[in-house]
Amino acid sequence: MSAKSAISFLKKAIKLEYNDVFLYHKEKQNAALSDKVRGVFEAFGNQEITHLDLFSIELKKLADEPTIELAPPSGAKSLREILFYHKASEENTIAFYEAFAEVFDDEDFKKKLLKVISDEKTHLHILEKLIKEIR
Ligand SMILES: [Fe+2]
Ligand SMILES: [Fe+2]
Q1: Pick the CATH number of 3-134 from 3.40.50.10420, 1.20.1260.10, 3.40.50.2030, 2.60.40.1220
Q2: Distance 3 CA to ligand 1 centre (A)
Q3: Of the ligands numbered here, which is closest to the C-alpha atom of 18?
Q4: In the prediction, which pLDDT does 94 show?
Q5: Structural contact between residues 14 and 66, judged by C-beta atoms closer than 8 angstroms
Q6: Could you tell me the distance, in angstroms and rounded to a whole number, from the CA of residue 2 to the centre of ligand 2?
Q7: Residues of the chain under the 70 pLDDT cut
């Protein structure tokens, strides 16, 4: 994979991760949500920070300082809307990372990316369980 494609992958990955860090940590403060859901969002937000950090370090190796763009508000209001928003977001992230996972020449980074994909799949799985519980 060319450096140019790797940089463009990393920039989009940083945006996806930042969006999730922002929203999970914002929503964990929503007193209307149960302690269980808020605890899950807290843990997810912390894990997205480690993903953000990984991609930022990698981008710094290839290009300039990573720039962070503020995430747009999701617009989701009810627990159901919030969970469905995150389900779609995690699915989108997994599909994007999987499309790139095989094309990196850097074996060490590829391994780290596969671990991130596995984290995102865990997030998706837990969100799906939470969605079932509110039905
Ligand atoms: Fe993530
Ligand atoms: Fe995630």
Answers
A1: 1.20.1260.10
A2: 22
A3: 1
A4: 98
A5: yes
A6: 26
A7: 68-73
